[in-house]
Amino acid sequence: MSNQQLTELEPLMPTYNRFPIAIAKGKESFVWDSNGKRYLDYTSGIAVCNLGHVPDEVKEKVELQLNDLWHCSNLYHIPQQKKLAALLVEKSCCDQVFFCSSGAEANEAAIKLARKYSQTIKQQKAFEIVTFSRSFHGRTLAALSATAQDKIKTGFAPFIDGFRYLPYNDFESIDQLQNGKTCAVLLELVQGEGGVIPADQEWIEKLAATCKKEGILLMADEIQTGIGRTGTFFAYEQYGIEPDVITLAKGLGSGFPIGAVLAKAEAAKAFDPGSHGSTFGGNPLAAAAGIATLEAIEQYEVLKTAQENGKYLKDRLEALQDKYSCHIQSVRGKGLLLGLVTTSDAVNIVNQAREKQVLILTAGQNVVRILPPLTTDRSEIDMFISVMEEIFANLEA
Ligand SMILES: *Cc1c(COP(=O)(O)O)cnc(C)c1O
């Protein structure tokens, strides 16, 4: 094709079906489009801006770091990275941390860690990782291979060997977990992209107990559920279980790209010098954003706020469900990761909300996904509910 023809193409590859607005500015729970129109942002950049947009306390610390040093390779000590690792260790059941720059990369590292732990520490041949129906683990080839959703896999075969899928929340199938080849399980405690589906308590307990008994690593993908999204810092805390490995990204840097793999000491043994790496992973700027995010969560008691907001929002959504039960089947999720299961088209609801200056998401065809900043408040929730009410009242007519 000639250059002449090429110039008529859009410069961006069309990998996203973009909504017809451009966001130019954000502050706290609001964003402004390029025409200056204001929107209540209940997407938080898909669970990234958990402290709202451009949070002052993170901005100040990133600005300070901007003056000193942006990047430094992992061939040298990076004190900011070490500090962020220590903070994550303190908050979790894990002992050591590896940093990267995104969620898919964090899952890649977890997959590599599980295989290497099995092959070198345990001296076994087991390499298989069990994941679950409707999961989402990212878009790189191994993360996609771990993902059990055909719609995003078409055309990318062959996939990476060594993944097996079991039905999510299916108590019986846990008996099929160990087949002699399984070294790890990777799962979301509330499935995000798959439809905002929380894991059942009894299922998780049996899964965790079976993993322990069979010597299988339990790996929690907390990329969407982590950093306070479900009301506790990690979602696993609410289930009374302890994963061996946890992956994080989205909210960790408040919008600055950073991902992490946390592991218990035993599993972390598998990584030694040279076994894994990342150029950008945990660089001083990213680490400064991460430290500032975690410190702000502590200082402003953001988890408490998130729990209160989550309860209030869920109560109000359930009241809406009672009133418009023909359109709303159920409200599910944890904390501020909520899904409204609708009998009508979720995309239509999202589009109508945007026209009424409220941004929300879908999770599959019939689920409206609501991800407010953890720092939202009752007046914003009321504003959101009144817009949703208008939409459902109109659907009724
Ligand atoms: C978003 C997400 C990922 C992928 O993260 P990226 O940063 O887009 O690579 C993986 N797992 C879960 C549960 C997610 O929500």
Automatic annotation (TrEMBL):
<dbReference type="InterPro" id="IPR005814">
    <property type="entry name" value="Aminotrans_3"/>
</dbReference>
<feature type="modified residue" description="N6-(pyridoxal phosphate)lysine">
    <location>
        <position position="250"/>
    </location>
</feature>
<feature type="binding site">
    <location>
        <position position="139"/>
    </location>
    <ligand>
        <name>N(2)-acetyl-L-ornithine</name>
    </ligand>
</feature>
<keyword id="KW-0963">Cytoplasm</keyword>
<comment type="pathway">
    <text>Amino-acid biosynthesis; L-arginine biosynthesis; N(2)-acetyl-L-ornithine from L-glutamate: step 4/4.</text>
</comment>
<keyword id="KW-0808">Transferase</keyword>
<dbReference type="GO" id="GO:0003992">
    <property type="term" value="F:N2-acetyl-L-ornithine:2-oxoglutarate 5-aminotransferase activity"/>
</dbReference>
<dbReference type="InterPro" id="IPR015421">
    <property type="entry name" value="PyrdxlP-dep_Trfase_major"/>
</dbReference>
<dbReference type="InterPro" id="IPR049704">
    <property type="entry name" value="Aminotrans_3_PPA_site"/>
</dbReference>
<dbReference type="InterPro" id="IPR050103">
    <property type="entry name" value="Class-III_PLP-dep_AT"/>
</dbReference>
<comment type="subunit">
    <text>Homodimer.</text>
</comment>
<feature type="binding site">
    <location>
        <position position="278"/>
    </location>
    <ligand>
        <name>N(2)-acetyl-L-ornithine</name>
    </ligand>
</feature>
<feature type="binding site">
    <location>
        <begin position="103"/>
        <end position="104"/>
    </location>
    <ligand>
        <name>pyridoxal 5'-phosphate</name>
    </ligand>
</feature>
<protein>
    <recommendedName>
        <fullName>Acetylornithine aminotransferase</fullName>
        <ecNumber>2.6.1.11</ecNumber>
    </recommendedName>
</protein>
<comment type="similarity">
    <text>Belongs to the class-III pyridoxal-phosphate-dependent aminotransferase family. ArgD subfamily.</text>
</comment>
<keyword id="KW-0032">Aminotransferase</keyword>
<dbReference type="InterPro" id="IPR015424">
    <property type="entry name" value="PyrdxlP-dep_Trfase"/>
</dbReference>
<dbReference type="InterPro" id="IPR015422">
    <property type="entry name" value="PyrdxlP-dep_Trfase_small"/>
</dbReference>
<keyword id="KW-0055">Arginine biosynthesis</keyword>
<dbReference type="Pfam" id="PF00202">
    <property type="entry name" value="Aminotran_3"/>
</dbReference>
<feature type="binding site">
    <location>
        <begin position="221"/>
        <end position="224"/>
    </location>
    <ligand>
        <name>pyridoxal 5'-phosphate</name>
    </ligand>
</feature>
<keyword id="KW-0028">Amino-acid biosynthesis</keyword>
<dbReference type="InterPro" id="IPR004636">
    <property type="entry name" value="AcOrn/SuccOrn_fam"/>
</dbReference>
<feature type="binding site">
    <location>
        <position position="136"/>
    </location>
    <ligand>
        <name>pyridoxal 5'-phosphate</name>
    </ligand>
</feature>
<feature type="binding site">
    <location>
        <position position="279"/>
    </location>
    <ligand>
        <name>pyridoxal 5'-phosphate</name>
    </ligand>
</feature>
<keyword id="KW-0663">Pyridoxal phosphate</keyword>
